[in-house]
């Protein structure tokens, strides 16, 4: 029998972005400041997250706020059937705790959704994507404060009601597990005197879990067609050697990620995390009714980002590697990107199998791509390196679906149009199929150019994944 080389007929192809990385207009039309607006451009994480320097590329982004029609037309030309985007919390509720929303902010997203509908592109909307209102950090202490549950649910409910009939796919929190690495923009909380940092983090995460479940409840009540997913950053962890200690260390690091999906998909805290809390004297305030809420309103699907894999060693456990925005060891069997991220297409297949075999719910790959330096020659960008990376990852997804039986329903490559890097604030780290003439120092015309990968992805989508050469 000839093997089917195409993806399922209803498979959704598209790209992914975040409001704070492409919209710009950071203080226009009533928008308030978010936690990302004070971050500068620097490969030094300490400098970036402490606002050292005077370059704020996210303030202008790529000016999607004023150019969304042009960009959506380009997405349509590529053949997108889905577009992942986020709604800036501070456009709708500038401080985050208001009763009434900012109409100008809601109207902007109405216009975006209407433009997407013109081209039959399905929006996949992240409700909170590293852009919580700075006011909620300054005046409430971020997500460690239980009041943020109510503020978030009010925000989410406002969106569900306003965009009923326009949006049916939602993600509650972007890469919720990154609270362990970049809490400043994920939970906005830190330990006060006398508090344990880890305890504060898990308390804040508990509030996000409850908020996600309550938002899922409201989404279904307002429109039963709504589908709500969780979203995690996923990098499979390989043992650095066959030593049993390395294998067990890798297994433990894998379980750290599964904690987040266990709570949101299975609806309860796994025993291994409860044991960890007990052993380390971590006390989480779980209010009466919280466990019932988590159990009653799990998500419908799992979405995740995949860029690279990690390796774990018992002897070096906990030490930070260079490059990857995770903890792990350098894998001697893999090449690396310009930014030190390992390139491992098979790791995506590993991730898909691991998640599907564990949870048996539909999956979406909502971030994946290669950050690289692109050179422009006569308005052309020959990015064969990106095409090679993407081709191998599309093939890995196809194998997971056809050979392994994984229920993968959508793929949205990260930064389908060049945008500001979340990790470094740079424009130089480009992921897009569309080049944007803007640079780290703020110069550039913002002109859009199609890269060679634009035409490659167009062909992939047109053939439903059969033609990747």
TrEMBL record:
A cellular component term, taken from the record's GO annotations: cytosol
PROSITE patterns named in the record: GLYCOSYL_HYDROL_F1_2
Keywords attached to this entry: Glycosidase, Hydrolase
Gene Ontology MF terms in the entry: beta-glucosidase activity
Record carries keyword Hydrolase: yes
Hydrolase in keyword set: yes
GO biological process, one term: carbohydrate catabolic process
Annotated family: Belongs to the glycosyl hydrolase 1 family.
Protein name as catalogued: 6-phospho-beta-glucosidase
Biological source species: Pisciglobus halotolerans
């Amino acid at each position: 029998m000839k093997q089917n080389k195409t993806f399922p007929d209803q498979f959704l192809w598209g790209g992914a972005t975040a409001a704070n990385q492409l919209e710009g207009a950071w203080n226009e039309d009533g928008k308030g400041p978010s936690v990302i607006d004070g971050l500068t451009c620097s490969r030094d994480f300490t400098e970036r997250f402490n606002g050292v320097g005077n370059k704020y590329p996210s303030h202008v982004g790529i000016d999607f706020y004023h150019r969304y029609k042009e960009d959506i037309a380009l997405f349509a030309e590529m053949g997108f059937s889905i577009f992942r985007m986020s709604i800036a919390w501070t456009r709708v509720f500038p401080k985050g705790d208001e009763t009434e929303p900012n109409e100008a902010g809601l109207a902007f997203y109405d216009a975006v959704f209407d433009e997407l509908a013109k081209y039959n592109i399905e929006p996949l909307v992240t409700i909170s994507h590293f852009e919580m209102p700075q006011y909620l950090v300054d005046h409430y202490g971020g997500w460690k404060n239980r009041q943020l549950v109510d503020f978030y649910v009010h925000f989410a409910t406002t969106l569900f009601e306003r965009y009923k009939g326009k949006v049916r796919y939602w993600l509650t929190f972007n890469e919720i597990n990154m609270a362990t690495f970049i809490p400043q923009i994920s939970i906005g909380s830190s330990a006060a005197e006398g508090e344990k940092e880890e305890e504060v983090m898990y308390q804040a995460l508990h509030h996000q879990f409850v908020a996600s479940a309550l938002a899922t409840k409201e989404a279904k009540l307002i429109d039963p067609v709504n589908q709500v997913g969780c979203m995690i950053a996923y990098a499979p962890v390989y043992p650095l050697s066959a030593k049993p200690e390395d294998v067990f260390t890798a297994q433990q690091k894998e379980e750290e990620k599964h904690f987040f999906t266990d709570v949101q998909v299975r609806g309860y805290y796994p025993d291994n995390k409860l044991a960890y809390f007990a052993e380390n004297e971590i006390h989480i305030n779980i209010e009466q009714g919280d466990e019932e809420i988590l159990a009653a309103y799990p998500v419908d699907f799992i979405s995740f980002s995949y860029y690279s894999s990690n390796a774990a060693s018992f002897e070096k456990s906990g030490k930070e590697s260079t490059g990857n925005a995770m903890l792990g060891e350098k894998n001697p069997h893999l090449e690396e990107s310009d930014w030190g991220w390992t390139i491992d297409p098979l790791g995506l297949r590993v991730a898909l199998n691991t998640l599907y075999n564990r949870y048996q719910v539909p999956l979406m790959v909502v971030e994946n791509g290669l950050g690289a330096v692109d050179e422009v020659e006569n308005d052309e960008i020959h990015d064969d390196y990106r095409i090679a990376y993407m081709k191998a990852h599309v093939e890995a997804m196809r194998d997971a679906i056809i050979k392994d039986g994984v229920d993968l329903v959508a793929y949205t490559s990260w930064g389908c149009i060049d945008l500001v890097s979340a990790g470094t604030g740079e424009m130089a780290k480009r992921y897009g199929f569309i080049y944007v003439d803007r640079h780290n120092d703020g110069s550039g015309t913002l002109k859009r150019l199609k890269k060679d990968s634009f035409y490659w992805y167009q062909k992939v989508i047109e053939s439903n994944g059969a033609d990747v050469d």
